[in-house]
Write a structure and sequence with these properties.
By secondary structure, this protein is of the alpha/beta class. It has two domains: 53 residues; 147 residues, Rossmann fold. 40% of the residues lie in helices and 27% in strands. Strands 1, 2, 3, 4, 5 and 6 form a six-stranded mixed β-sheet that branches. A hairpin with a 4-residue loop joins β5 and β6. α2 crosses α3. The radius of gyration is 30 Å and the shape is flat. It starts with a helix and ends with a helix.
Amino acid sequence: MGGRGFSEVTDLGESKEMIKHRLHRLKTQITQIILLSTLYFLLSTFLGGCGYTTRSMISDKFRTIYVVPFVNKIDVTKEADAANKYKLYKPTLETDITKSVTNKFLFDGNLRPTREENADLILRGELIEFRRDPLRYTDNNEVEEYRINLVVNISLWDKKENKLAWEENRFTGDSTYFTSFTSSGTPKSDDAAINDAISDLSRRIVERTVEQW
């Protein structure tokens, strides 16, 4: 009798400890869930405020878009002078811009690229300037850093209302790059810098298109 009573007390004590342990684990899990939920909310709010969002401010009636192939309007016959000596010409650059803009719309997801006859909106653009301007020089007066600028005229046509929604002249995308290793950055090729400028221009065009207007 005495031995069995001691065992019952021991088992009861162990059960209480197990219950306490389980309650502690449960509280810990609940706390972790709350912390993760709070962190997710804060990150969503922060990233949304920084522009990393695919939520569109454009009307719900617009679902599709056709990107007309960009036209290269750069005047290659213009004589070089102090004002335009940094202007450049690159064959098929307008084609690269068209592809990049279309891909950016696909990635963004608010407007689906489609054929012209099926589109709610039509985006037109023309490349009017391609520049590479020096930003920084070395002690030997050699260019250390450049800025690439891609300048376009763009317009958006509302097919549903058969009217011009908006147009932007001298809309610009850019990128900067170093020509050699410096304390401020690493070198980048001309082609890589141009691709970065195309990507920046495309991103800005998509953001302009899906915002409220």
